[in-house]
Specification:
- The chain is an alpha+beta fold and about 850 residues long.
- It contains 24 helices and 20 strands.
- The strands form 2 sheets. A 6-stranded mixed barrel has the order 2-3-7-4-6-5.
- It is elongated and about 100 Å long.
């Protein structure tokens, strides 16, 4: 072992520059794993610690219907001291707000929350000036609003606003609310008294108000309260009982899943680095053949030499992993400096010990696994290599040890990937997908190089030499093209997909698709609303009657969530459906099964269902669905199944009734229209609607699309960051591979110089070779990226796809430039070598 350690130390000391890129590839991958896992573990711990504050209570009941006497009786009987210490109620509803002063322009959608004096039972509520919230601010029609609302409507504290039919004075502003979290909303939050929500006419029939009852309990009593409430309310699907621990467990599970998926990102980089490691090790052993032959002549066994070089690999893997930890810490500091304002205030940005351990472990394992097969070549190097260069290495046709090592490597990779993914199934899919993608790129590179090799000779000497260099023995063109191409592939895919998604949200190119919706229009308001819209836009709106209903039975079998089959479909069976009735199919609907009814109304209930409902507890054409419509049971026969193009839908419905059944049911109307083009005109139009009909909410799709685009841009930034890391790894592998094959280039350059080639000619050869290599990698990566972007757009997001010329061709040009620059810089010193010393050494 002393010999092995001494040899490993000496080899590292003399060859560290050649193995530097091996070291850096490991560092980037380990840093990605450590930073990603630490970030999500920190977020998980912080959110879990804040779970009670996010719920603003220990236990919460919520429903989108008014509390029934039966429900309140059960709650009042169970939720009493000493089981309950505190209790309060809230009402939440999306609605519109506008300045009370007619001279002030502007209206917008808000998330209104009516609260009682005890709110919040958990968490802190502080105003923008640092003062604690005082419920007296809401007395006598007071309001506390999000600070962003003041900016958007150019209001100040003391101004009055109209919400529903009530007028409220703004008495405070806040930046962060208790339980607010960072969820997507249609508008900023506004707090008023709970009773004021009722007085403003926002909780009548058809409203989207959500009622909540919040409780705090003594220590150890929370589970008892939850169990008793769930037991008594188990048959009431309209009421949900939840504790903060439920939210905590759900969040922990989500963060754990996100953490595992994020670590796969670092693993992609590590595996790519591993490919580079394998090639660097192979070339390194090739360069050390004579040294190994000398050692064998002096009595060293192949195994001792192999272990010595393996020690180098472990040392480099460990050193690269430790550097990766520093890199991961730097990434976390960058996130804290750049994105802290948009992340929860209670987030921390330190490295987690478990994340560090996993990163280091993965880095060392990848180093060993990918160098194992190249190191086995040492066994085949014979002492006579010193005397007979042509002897080379002899290899048996079937090498059991080599095959056994390959099997162990593949199995170990599967275990490693599954460990990082937290699932054998996900790990298997990931490894197969990565291998398939890399293999496709490798084969594509091989095919292109095959075609280039057989091109007709070019008149340019430099170009001919560059093409010959691409298929030179010992060159690593295919591996470099594969890894760099994979980085380009990821970056191009994400950027192209983002471009198509943003294009899909561009309302200016979508023709007559509505960009504004009216919600909660009552039947007696239909004529007045239509007249108002027509006077402002020149066309009457499409007002569609809607009825809220729930499914209580399918094919005569009552919905029972104790049934295993129905329990699996709880999400679809337990939800509330908004349905309508009409005689004809819409333009965006297509019949896929059954027969659609004619225009004649029928008193016999018939429904047409959207195709995703087919198979729900055996549902199909000819089956029946029993609905609960405001307490009345209604059984309808399924006569047809429709495909709905939701992208081009003015109003799309999962369930459509034949006219003649629901006309007299309690209903409200939803309107779709194209609002005025100018922002000021849109604001005035929204205000005219809300001033006359305070119960109506106007959803401006333009604002919603802006919010969605912000989310898409953030996601794209994160994933592009990953793609750039992969591309950086590819560039490092490129530089490392070039550095390892420099000894070949030095000899070739010396021969060409001896034959009269000038430095300018040699530089052209280098630039042409790297330019061709970058072109091949760029074309393959860009083409593969376009293909995946098309597939994701077509079958995942179901949106039209268009070829992004600037992104795809820009990616090719950038790759050519990048590879050329890196290659030239890595091997530029070759041009300055004197040919005589090089030829003598050979």
């Amino acid at each position: 072992m002393k010999f092995i350690f001494q040899m490993a130390r000496r080899e590292l000391r003399t060859s560290w520059r050649r193995l530097l890129f091996f070291f850096l590839c490991i560092a980037i991958g380990v840093g990605s794993i450590a930073a990603g896992r630490s970030m999500l573990q920190n977020a998980g711990v912080a959110v879990a610690a804040e779970a009670r504050n996010l719920l603003t209570a220990d236990v919460r009941l919520d429903s989108n219907r008014p509390w029934t006497d039966e429900t309140l009786s059960i709650v009042n009987r169970i939720a009493t001291p000493p089981l309950v210490e505190g209790r309060t109620e809230t009402i939440e509803s999306p609605t519109m707000i506008r300045p009370a002063d007619p001279s002030r322009e502007g209206t917008m959608m808000i998330e209104l929350k009516g609260i009682e004096p005890a709110f919040p039972l958990a968490g802190e509520f502080k105003l923008k000036d640092g003062q604690r919230f005082d419920y007296s601010l809401l007395a006598n029609n007071g309001a506390v609003v999000a600070a962003s609302l003041l900016d958007r409507l150019a209001l100040q504290i003391g101004h009055e606003v109209k919400i529903g039919s009530g007028t409220f004075e703004i008495r405070g502003a806040f930046d962060q609310e208790p339980g607010g979290g960072n969820s997507f909303r249609l508008g900023p939050r506004v707090f008023i008294e709970r009773a004021a929500v009722e007085r403003s006419g926002l909780t009548g029939f058809g409203s989207r108000a959500r009622r909540k009852i919040l409780f705090t309990t003594p220590q150890g009593q929370m589970e008892t309260l939850v169990t008793q409430l769930r037991g008594e309310l188990k048959n009431n699907d309209l009421v949900t009982v939840r504790s903060y621990k439920d939210s905590q467990e759900n969040l922990n599970e989500q963060f754990s899943r996100a953490e595992n998926y994020s670590s796969l990102t670092g693993l992609v980089i590590l595996v790519l680095g591993g490919i580079g490691i394998s090639n660097v090790t192979r070339v390194f052993i090739e360069q050390k053949k004579k040294t190994i032959a000398v050692l064998k002549c002096l009595g060293a066994t192949g195994w001792r030499i192999t272990i010595a070089y393996l020690m180098q690999v472990v040392a480099l893997g460990l050193g690269g992993s430790l550097l990766g930890i520093l890199f991961g810490k730097a990434v976390l500091l960058l996130i804290a400096a750049r994105f802290a304002a948009s992340l929860p205030a209670y987030m921390t940005y330190g490295l987690r010990l478990s994340a560090v351990a996993q990163g280091v472990g993965a880095g060392v394992l990848i180093s060993i696994l990918f160098s194992a097969l190249p190191l086995l070549r040492i066994r085949n190097i014979k002492p006579n290599e010193l005397l007979r260069e042509e002897a080379g290495e002899t290899r048996r046709r079937f090498d059991p040890l080599r095959w056994a090592t390959a099997v162990v490597v593949v199995f170990s990779l599967l275990v490693l990937v599954s460990w990082q993914a937290g699932s054998l199934r996900v790990g298997s899919f990931f490894l197969v997908a990565l291998a398939a993608t890399a293999g496709a790129l490798y084969l594509a590179a091989t095919l292109l190089i095959f075609l280039v090799r057989r091109t007709r000779p070019f008149s340019s000497f430099a170009l001919r030499q560059a093409i010959n260099s691409l298929h030179r023995p010992g060159n690593q063109t295919r591996v470099i093209v594969m890894v760099v191409g994979l980085g380009v592939f990821l970056v191009i895919t994400i950027q192209s997909l983002q471009s198509n998604l943003v294009r899909e949200f561009d309302l200016n190119r979508r023709g007559n698709i509505p960009n504004m919706f009216l919600v909660d229009v009552q039947k007696d308001q239909e004529a007045g609303v239509s007249d108002l819209v027509q006077s402002a836009t020149g066309e009457r709106p499409l007002l569609v009657p809607t009825i809220r209903t729930r499914i209580v039975a399918i094919n005569g079998s009552e919905v029972n969530f104790d049934n295993a089959d129905m329990k699996r479909e709880r999400g679809r069976l337990g939800r509330e459906y908004v349905v309508t009735y009409r005689p004809l199919l819409a333009e965006n609907e297509k019949l896929v099964a059954g027969t659609f009814w004619d225009a004649t109304p029928s008193s016999e209930p018939e429904v047409s269902i959207e195709e995703s409902l087919k198979g729900l507890s055996g549902l199909d054409v000819g089956g029946s669905i029993t609905f609960d419509v405001q307490g009345r049971k209604l059984t309808a026969q399924v006569t047809s199944i429709r495909h709905v193009d939701w992208r081009n839908s003015r109003t799309g419905f999962m369930v459509l009734f034949r006219p003649g059944t629901l006309e007299n049911a309690p209903q409200m109307m939803v309107g779709a229209l194209n609002g005025p083009a100018e922002e000021i005109d849109r604001s005035r139009f929204e205000r005219s609607i809300v001033d006359k009909y305070p119960n109506i909410s106007v959803i401006d799709v333009v604002d919603v699309v802006r919010a969605i685009q912000r989310i898409i841009n953030n996601i794209t930034l994160a994933i592009s960051f990953v793609g750039l890391f992969v591309l950086l790894s590819g560039i490092l592998i490129l530089a490392g591979s070039l550095a390892m094959t420099k000894f070949q280039r030095v000899y070739e350059t010396a021969v060409l110089k001896t034959l009269g080639a000038k430095r300018k000619t040699l530089l052209r050869i280098l630039l042409a070779e790297y330019g061709l290599m970058g072109l091949v990698a760029g074309v393959i990566g860009s083409a593969a990226g376009a293909g995946l972007s098309y597939a994701a757009s077509r079958w995942v997001f179901e949106i039209p796809w268009s070829f992004t010329v600037a992104i795809n061709f820009g990616g090719v040009v950038a790759t050519v430039a990048l590879v050329t620059v890196v290659g030239a810089v890595s091997t530029f010193d070759v041009l300055s070598r004197k040919p005589l010393a090089t030829l003598r050494a050979q």
